[in-house]
Amino acid sequence: MKRNDEILKYLSDLMNDKEKAEFEREISLSDDLRKEVEKYQSLLGQIKFNADIKEDSPYFQNLLPRVREKIGKGKVKRLLPRAAYLVPTLTAVALIIINIGKFTPEKAPVNNTGSVNTVKKTEVKTAEKGDEQYLNADYSVLANLEYIDAAKSEPISFEVGLKGNANQETIQKLADRSFVIPYMEDYFLASK
Amino acid sequence: MTELQDFELVKEFIAGSEVAFNKIVQKYQSKIYWHARRLLGNHMDADEVTQEVLIVLYNKLHTFNFQSSLFTWIFRIVSTRSLNHLRKGKLKKMLFFEDDDEEKRYKNNEDIVRDLENKEKLDKLDKVLDKLALKQKEVFILRNFEGLSYEEISKITGRSVGGLKANYFHAIKKVTEMMNEKE
After folding, report:
1. Among B79, B96, B112, where does a domain finish?
2. B118 lies in which domain range?
């Protein structure tokens, strides 16, 4: 090992007791080694001297008031993010609740097939919008519906109600005794 | 002021005394700042970390468990925050290709040391410390400038005494080599 490393090891307290005692004995016997150790200690002392600096501005007098101000603001700030999260969350929840009825039926086709037995008109009023004829009526349709789901494959008879203002084409489909309910929006299942 | 008096101040603060917090700040602010300053190498970053540490102190002092000295507890926060600050800075430099020299010039515009002789001493110190790896720098500062034992440094850094000795060995090796080159 190089002599310098030994000195640094000694100064770092990396030597065990035996090594330390031996090294200290060598120092006491060798002027050169003692001077070399002192040189290293002096270099470290020099850097310690460079670190001994006093500030010459009122920084520390102003520090506490600045920190106090930030602590005060922090108390308010800690509440703000909570509110910032709460408002959009509540808005989102409200929007979901409001729209859940609107969107779910449109996006979820009803997987029922069946045939129409009878179509009973309860009231018929026609209205024309451009080329299309609309029937302002509530239709009551007796239909045999079969669920595609194998577990529920038994034919079940339902009274299917058709909402008012139904398009003529939809009515015709029902009358053709064959239809696939595309979306729940146009139909509702009335109790049998 | 003894460790016992520190504990009394902490208890008073937890009980609601804001004056006790002021006393703790007045006692430790300089040590906090200079430790952060030596680790970070400039006033702006040190100021930021010092304020951060004092705010953490205010908010977390109620979690102090009286198992270590207040000094050790505070220095642990200063070291952690300073090293995190340095790591963040390095990452930022890597990501945004920031110019080191320009940044230093900007950060050195504002300082609490104005006396030319002191400024020169501080510059020399920063240049030497800048060459050390973070772990080496930390142990070198705590042992050389704060005069702490390896056991005390171990409590602050959470590293083993053996590891700290090795880090200190490499630190003083680099430091003395640099100083020798200059002479």
Report:
1. B112
2. 113-183
- Across chain A, which has 192 residues, the per-10-residue mean pLDDT values are 85 94 94 94 89 82 90 74 78 84 52 50 49 51 48 52 56 49 40 32
pLDDT of residue B11: 95
Q: Residue B90 maps to which CATH number?
A: 1.10.1740.10
Does the residue A76 lie in any domain? Answer: no
- pLDDT of amino acid A170: 61
Claim to verify: residue B75 and residue B18 sit in the same structural domain:
yes
pLDDT digits (tens, 9 = 90+) for B1-24: 578 899 999 999 999 999 999 999
Residues in A touching B169 (Cβ below 8 Å): 8-9, 12, 14
Distance CA B26, CA A189 (A): 78
CA dihedral over A114, A120, A126, A127, signed as positive or negative: negative
Rounded to a whole number of angstroms, the distance from the CA of A22 to the nearest CA of chain B is 19
* Phi, psi dihedral angles at B148 (to 5 degrees): -85, 150
Asked whether residue B152 falls in the same domain as residue B163, the answer is yes
Q: Is B179 on the interface with A (CB under 8 A)?
A: yes
Residues B42 and B81 in one domain: yes
CA–CA distances in Å: residue B52 to residues A79, A180, B45, B141, B158: 19, 67, 10, 20, 21
Higher local confidence (pLDDT), B151 or A51 = B151
